[in-house]
Amino acid sequence: TLYIFRKTTSFTRNILFLTEGTCGKCLPGWNLLNSSCYFFSYLESSTVKKNWADSRADCVRRGADLVVIDTPEEQTSTKIWDNGFWIGITDMQSEGTWTWINNVTGLDRREPNNYGRGEDCGVILYSSISPWKTMFDGPCNYPYHWVCKMDSR
């Protein structure tokens, strides 16, 4: 059984809280969705933001990696996560070829588009065109919150 609750942060943004169900267990401070555990950096500290590389290093230090959005459930749930967070996709290896950190390539979207050059790291932001959050490419040195992902135990 998976129980889903909503909570409003001091920023009055809705965050999805997922509690431990019968399909797996997560470490304290992590949230369960299907068979994966998620760490939302802004829940630990709303003021700490990091660049893409430091965000990924923090995830690795926790035994995880930046989130790879590879299921419809994850894509849907990003709509209610905090705005502005790093995800595990980049085109640093080959400009214009967006690769998830699990080595899956290819996106069928208008974004990421490398508008303005130097935008090599994936970030989820609200779109001014769409009310839904959208994946954008951003400068890797810009500070954002981040979301880590690992398999449940």
UniProtKB/TrEMBL annotation:
Residues 33-149 form the C-type lectin domain. It comes from the Eukaryota. The keyword Oxidoreductase does not apply. It holds the Pfam family Lectin_C. Keywords: Lectin. The keyword Lipoprotein does not apply. One of its GO terms (molecular function) is carbohydrate binding. InterPro entries: C-type_lectin-like, C-type_lectin-like/link_sf, C-type_lectin/snaclec_domain, CD209-like_CTLD, CTDL_fold. This is C-type lectin domain-containing protein. It comes from Anabas testudineus (Climbing perch). The lineage of its organism: Eukaryota, Metazoa, Chordata, Craniata, Vertebrata.
